[in-house]
């Protein structure tokens, strides 16, 4: 383990140097990893584990689009690809990577296969943290762990293929066997993490739900829409408004932030941009901090979980979701984006 100074806090992280892939493979050499769910995180984690030399099988509903995707990725029906219950029976480590709603729906089927000594693995703390609402209460005689890659399954796989990795958090909710720690760290290295930092299920889900609704998705989408609308209202063309709102941010500025930080990006912009950004950032921070406080309180109180469980569990949810996403896709902002992306070399 490495001790690093992050801001004013010293933290412990685990890198591939401290826990190399050979050590991870040795720790799990007698395990069968059943990846349950082949939607968002499942493909990236399963393919990375397979390529890294672990014994992996997939559990997915037959006849679904995700089943077909698994077949296309080389998983073989009856050998490495099974229905969810069958895969859960065969696995000693069950990576429960269905959606939060899917985890609730399949819990009784999966729980029936959680015999003593098995390991139940999550990449999101939702089901366990809000267990009074989800009903996901693991048996006392199994390990319950978490590895949460800080990126989409697509990014996890893409960076792995490039020889890189995303950072991941890890946590232990229950250590029934005395092996939970070596299991979870080995799995974190196996799925392709660049390094691992410690958390717990509650902190992971509170930060994750806040981030998704905030900067990572909800806030950034709302800010895009607001600035684009103001520019269009004042006579700017869709092309100009989109480029000043989205394209320059995603294609030019954010890569610089990713490389060396916000201050470095500021140092490499025009003095006019620097001055305006330095002044206006304070006003934006003051304006949105109360909204972030409200959001975090809603997450902590379980209100966001209640909304997810009630909404995503409706029979017509996928249809209604499609309508919401189509509304976004058909807005002038993102229609402009589609057109302008086609012009990239």
What's a quick, concise take on this entry?
This protein is α/β, with parallel strands linked by helices. The chain is built from 17 helices and ten strands.
Quick tags:
single chain, about 350 residues, alpha/beta, Rossmann fold, 2 domains, ten-stranded mixed sheet, 10 strands, about 15% strand, globular
Explain this structure.
This protein is of the alpha/beta class and 345 residues long. Helix content is 56%, strand content 15%.
Number of domains: 2
Determine the mean pLDDT. 94
CATH homology-level superfamily of the largest domain: NAD(P)-binding Rossmann-like Domain
Helix/strand-derived category reads alpha/beta
- Silhouette: globular
- Total helical elements: 17
Largest sheet: 10 strands, mixed
Strand content: 15-25%
Strand order of the largest sheet: 1-2-10-9-8-7-6-3-4-5
Helix content: 55-70%
Report low-confidence residues grouped into runs of 5 or more: none
CATH architect. name of the largest domain: 3-Layer(aba) Sandwich
């Amino acid at each position: 383990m490495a001790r690093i100074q992050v801001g004013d806090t010293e933290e412990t992280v685990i890198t591939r140097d401290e826990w190399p892939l050979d050590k991870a493979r040795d720790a799990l050499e007698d395990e069968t990893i059943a990846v349950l769910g082949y939607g968002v995180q499942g493909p990236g984690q399963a393919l990375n584990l397979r390529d890294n030399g672990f014994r992996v099988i997939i559990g997915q509903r037959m006849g679904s689009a995700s089943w077909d995707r698994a077949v296309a990725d080389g998983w073989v029906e009856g050998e490495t690809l099974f229905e969810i219950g069958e895969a859960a029976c065969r696995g000693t480590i069950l990576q429960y990577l269905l959606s939060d709603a899917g985890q609730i729906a399949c819990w009784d089927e999966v729980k029936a296969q959680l015999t003593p000594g098995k390991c139940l693995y999550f990449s999101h703390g939702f089901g366990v943290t809000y267990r009074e609402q989800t009903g996901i209460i693991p048996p006392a005689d199994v390990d319950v762990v978490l590895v949460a890659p800080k990126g989409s399954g697509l990014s996890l796989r893409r960076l792995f293929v490039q020889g890189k990795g995303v950072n991941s958090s890890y946590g232990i909710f229950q250590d029934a066997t005395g092996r939970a720690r070596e299991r979870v760290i080995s799995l974190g290295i196996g799925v392709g993490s660049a390094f691992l930092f410690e958390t717990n299920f509650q902190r992971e889900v509170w930060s994750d739900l806040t981030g998704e609704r905030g900067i990572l998705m909800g806030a950034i989408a709302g800010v895009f829409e607001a600035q684009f609308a103001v520019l269009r209202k004042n006579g700017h063309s869709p092309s100009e408004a989109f480029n000043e709102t989205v394209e320059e941010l995603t294609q030019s500025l954010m890569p610089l932030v990713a490389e060396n930080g916000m201050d470095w990006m500021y140092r490499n912009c025009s003095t006019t941009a620097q001055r305006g950004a330095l002044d206006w950032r304070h006003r934006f921070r003051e304006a949105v901090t109360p909204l972030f406080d409200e959001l975090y309180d809603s997450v902590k109180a379980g209100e966001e979980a209640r909304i997810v469980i009630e909404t995503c569990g409706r029979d017509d949810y996928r249809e209604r979701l499609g309508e919401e996403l189509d509304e976004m896709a058909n807005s002038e902002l993102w229609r402009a984006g589609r057109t302008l992306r086609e012009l990239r070399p």
